[in-house]
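Anyone able to model this chain together with 9MJ?
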Amino acid sequence: MNSNQGIATRIVQLRQAIEQHDYNYYVLDDPTVPDSEYDRLFSELRELEQQHPELISSDSPTQRVSGQPSAAFKQVQHQVPMLSLGNAFAEEQVLEFAQRAEQSLGTQHDRNDLFAVSASVNYCCEPKLDGLAVSISYEQGVLVRAATRGDGQTGEDITANVRTIRNVPLKLQGQGWPAFLEVRGEVYMPKAGFAALNQRVLEAGQKPFANPRNAAAGSLRQLDSKITASRPLEFCCYGTSTEDLAESHSSTLQRLREWGISISPEMQVVENIQGCLAYYADIGQRRAQLPYDIDGVVFKIDALQQQRSLGFRAREPRWALAYKFAAQEEITELLDVEFQVGRTGAVTPVARLKPVHVGGVMVSNATLHNMDEVARLGVMIGDSVIVRRAGDVIPQITQVVLERRPHDARSIETPTQCPVCGSQVERTQLVRRSKNKHVVSEGAVWRCMGRLSCQAQLQQALLHFVSRRALDIDGLGEKIIEQLVARKLVASPADLYRLSYEQVIELDGFADLSANNLLSAIASSKQPRLARLIFALGIPDVGEETAKVLARALGSVQRLQQAFPQTLLWLPEIGTEVAYEIASFFADSHNLAVIAQLSELGVHASDEGQPDAEFQACTTFAGFIEQFQIAGVARTNAQRLAEHFKTTAGLFAADWLDLCGVERLSKNAAQALQDFLQQEGQRQRILELEQQLIVFGMHWTCQRAQGQAAPLAGQTWVLTGTLELLTRDQAKSRLEQLGAKVAGSVSAKTSCVVAGSSAGSKLTKAQELAVPVLDEATFLEKLMQLEKQ
Ligand code: 9MJ
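re: yes, here you go
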């Protein structure tokens, strides 16, 4: 075979591969390789065709904009073709683009002036959203049609689906819009919405989406627009095919905005290509914090006159360029899977990968989360896998490229013994309560049962205990803890307080001063705030925020230790799983021993006190009855029973006739209640629970503490955007001082949102949900006013 034949064969192979990938991507919405792999195949094909123009055929994928309409939707002809953009992956390519454009404009500008070689050009910079390009048409200001880009000429009619996107106006606002207006932009799914959707999908036992782009594509191309409506999609406009709205691209977009069309808040006009590069660097730095995925930035020559004079080359405008970031997804090989043991004993599979550049960073490990995830991915050792690294997130395997599975791929087995200490590994159990029964199901996590006798767990537990947000003991880094554990000087966090000068000075790198400093840092950590102490204990599922709630609500470790899960369930944001995790943590004799030793060694919370008045007010007799979860006795019936019998004693004394006397209580419900109360030991258990509520001051007959409840008690606030006058931490801590909880996301339960400058999707969500919004100045005023009270 001569080399030309070899090239021709390669070209055919590349075309076939690209066509298959196009089909998977555009028609099935189920790409099997990452974009980076696709881009490589495409570039190789383009290069070979450039070198051998005689081999170009009109049906080569390089000769048309990718994508073909699917048969499921009606086809729509685009009156003005929807373009694609030229790509740049390196700075030189950007400079070349600018030079070419500016030179061309300069020469056209003044053909007689030999020195006028380049024109001055303003560029409009926009983030390049990673979603789906769509066209939306308005007639007389009313949305009449929406279409996908398809192959650029013909798209699919997705009007019904686009109409469900909340920030797409069905009618234009303001005035001055033309009789016919077509806007173009990207439909995308913000990161938060994507995470929530995948959570829902997983809970329903379905296959989650690999990334927000796929999720947006899958959502937009639904035949049932009710499904689309339930998906958190947004639209961002980046252009129009309608001419003469303004003199420049940026002012065109501003006009569209006045008519109610969303445009990117990140859009910026810069004076030259250097400004473009600075914009790229700035957005690149903020990429992880943006509420949506972007895969680069787009530069467009701003003046429409200049755009017109530059025109197009092979369906790509000469006046625009996409400067792409390093790909966030790459393909590589899974070499092996190792198991790591975490602080709570969770045995986590970690993928060892053939090193690969992802998003500009060399990646050789990725988390596999747990064995359910391994099963869901269907991944085997030796597989080609897609690795995704988004922002600061730990790299993840999102997909297996099944067609590349080798014959000798090996399955991944859960170890039966801890790889660190050899103890038994057991599957965790999840406890839910349903119909008054504990429903136990198998959890996704496997745990080493060695607890603190397992070096891995001990080391992690110690690191957590001394960390900045826990007891904040300075100078106890990973290396020192490793030594303390290896030399068997500490076997639990309590042992830290037993360390002697003689022991510390023996450790590598210690001298007199550093040994004394460490010992005094340990000694001075003995009076932490209660929330920190609870957090430091390392109870599974009890993070910093939960620890704060528990500390404020209960006022002491002792009360937390005694609390029944049912008591904990009364506290805000404590769900069944956490409540049972806490109870099982305190049911463990080893944990109790460590807590007792800490107390003997003088470690006590500095702010122990009574349960908080705010929480004491949360219990009702009706709620108590509802908590029994008796069939047919839900909220309304529980209220009827509570009103009728007033107390537990009253309820216990009720006979059949009394129960029948409760207004509108069905016979079935009455029977179920009676059966429930007659189960062995049931009354005793109820009395014990009630007794605890009384002791904790949380019982409905207790005198409500008349203490001054904090002014923002029970409220949940959200901070978003950039605050100029306060740091985030300051704002958060002042809100917490006033009794509010500060949450990371907006929901219908949010009391108030503080929106700093360039607030994004949280602000939009607050507006959608009609949650009150304060700007920073008003917020500060309110803070000061409340703090004076
Ligand atoms: C995206 N994807 O964000 C364009 N795009 O302009 C922006 N795409 C585009 N502009 C002309 N910001 C064709 C495509």
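The first strand starts at residue 75 and ends at 77.
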